[in-house]
Structure to design on (437 residues):
């Protein structure tokens, strides 16, 4: 990788690039709406990926599209166990290559997968109808993170339209599986994509992520003993036992939250560790004492704690609960790992990439860039921990991501796109002889 620092942009270059973002913003919004119309839920990402493939191919990028092969990534420590088919799990990467390379290379990454909608009758309109109301674009995935995927492409377009060619390779990545395992980003890393910096425009309220948590997904299965309800006491109720298991996990959650002052960038957060019981099933019908119950958990861990270490503590917690709480019947529940098995990361301060982002943000927003710690999972952990790349998670203002009526603030998207466009020009350098397109 080349590490030449390009010359600072001139005032004229900055003005031209910012104006080019404005000139194309209506087209960018329309493109984002097109992307939101694809219901790219897990196992259904392929049509949206085909759409992005075409959009990148039209820009003249060298195209790479591949189905995630679990065998390629299974042995990696960042791999998350898979419980679904990867038949439609394609990653797409478009590569821009300059004729001669002078500057620093860049990955512009985003994820195409979106989270489940929940009951449709609780939305104001279809989650796949990207209506614009009062400056906000609605829709599942509008903020998380199709606006960001579009911003990556239109930031590049603005640099080209202003008459410049980036002087270093840029890899435009659209990956799957960010919301459940992180295996899409991992597959992209293991396919060989490396760069001098990475930007991921997740919905981060116009701020830079300094640190985040790791995440584990697991399923807890409790076994009971069925009986007729006339002699209910002779049975053992797996649903009641599941509540006891959840209470034990809540104690572990409280214990981990109690340690927040010992973790850099988490000192000021009272409750960064969230255990979410996201799904529960059990029993067969009302008149039999239920012989089974299982529930799915998403648990957070601090950066610096490995998934293996967290797993040991979780399993010990449930083993001890089974030994001490009669409601669990003496048998520890069975645990299976069903998705994320991921460490968190910290973005070390003082990198050239962060410095460049600060400068570009200042020019786009006319304010100072703020950074913060987020208690959610981010694919950046793949690039930071396993790729050793400075990774900037920075993106637009949103509301109700993962909820009903998810939406993204369009003026914020415009300014974030300006920041990314300036970053491309400043980080990669620009060839001013290339002429306008
Ligand atoms: Zn996201």
């Amino acid at each position: 990788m080349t590490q030449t620092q390009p010359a600072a942009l001139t005032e004229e270059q900055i003005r031209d690039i910012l104006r080019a973002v404005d000139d194309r913003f209506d087209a960018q919004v329309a493109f984002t709406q097109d992307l939101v119309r694809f219901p790219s839920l897990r196992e259904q990402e392929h049509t949206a990926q085909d759409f992005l493939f075409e959009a990148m191919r039209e820009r003249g990028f060298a195209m790479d599209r591949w189905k995630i092969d679990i065998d390629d990534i299974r042995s990696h420590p960042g791999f998350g166990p898979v419980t679904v088919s990867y038949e439609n799990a394609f990653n797409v990467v478009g590569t821009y290559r300059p004729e001669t390379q002078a500057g620093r290379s860049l990955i512009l990454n985003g994820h195409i997968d979106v989270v489940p909608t929940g009951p449709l009758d609780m939305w104001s309109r279809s989650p796949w109808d990207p209506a614009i109301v009062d400056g906000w674009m609605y829709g599942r995935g509008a903020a998380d993170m199709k606006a960001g995927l579009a911003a990556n492409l239109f930031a590049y377009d603005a640099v080209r339209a202003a008459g410049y060619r980036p002087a270093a390779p840029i890899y435009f990545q659209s990956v799957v599986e960010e919301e459940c395992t992180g295996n899409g980003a991992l597959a992209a890393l293991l396919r060989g994509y490396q760069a001098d910096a990475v930007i991921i425009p997740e919905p981060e309220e116009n701020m830079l992520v300094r640190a985040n948590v790791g995440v584990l997904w697991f399923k807890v299965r409790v076994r009971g003993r069925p009986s007729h309800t006339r002699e209910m006491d002779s049975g053992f109720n797996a649903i009641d036992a599941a509540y006891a298991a959840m209470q034990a996990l809540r104690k572990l959650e409280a214990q981990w939250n109690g340690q927040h002052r010992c973790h850099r960038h988490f000192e000021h957060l009272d409750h960064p560790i969230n255990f979410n019981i996201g799904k529960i099933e059990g029993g067969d019908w009302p008149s039999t004492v239920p012989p089974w119950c299982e529930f799915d958990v998403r648990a957070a861990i601090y950066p610096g704690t490995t998934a293996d270490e967290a797993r040991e503590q979780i399993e010990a917690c449930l083993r001890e609960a089974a030994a001490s709480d009669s409601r669990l019947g003496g048998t520890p529940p069975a645990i299976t790992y069903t998705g994320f098995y991921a460490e968190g990361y910290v973005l070390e301060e003082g990198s050239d990439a962060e410095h460049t982002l600060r400068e570009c943000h200042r020019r786009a927003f006319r304010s100072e860039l703020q950074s913060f710690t987020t208690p959610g999972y981010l694919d950046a952990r793949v690039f930071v921990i396993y790729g050793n790349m400075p990774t900037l998670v920075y993106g637009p203002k949103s509301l109700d991501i993962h909820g009903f009526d998810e939406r993204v603030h369009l003026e914020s998207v415009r300014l974030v796109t300006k920041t990314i466009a300036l970053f491309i020009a400043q980080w990669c350098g620009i060839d001013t002889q290339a002429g306008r397109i």
The mean pLDDT is 96.
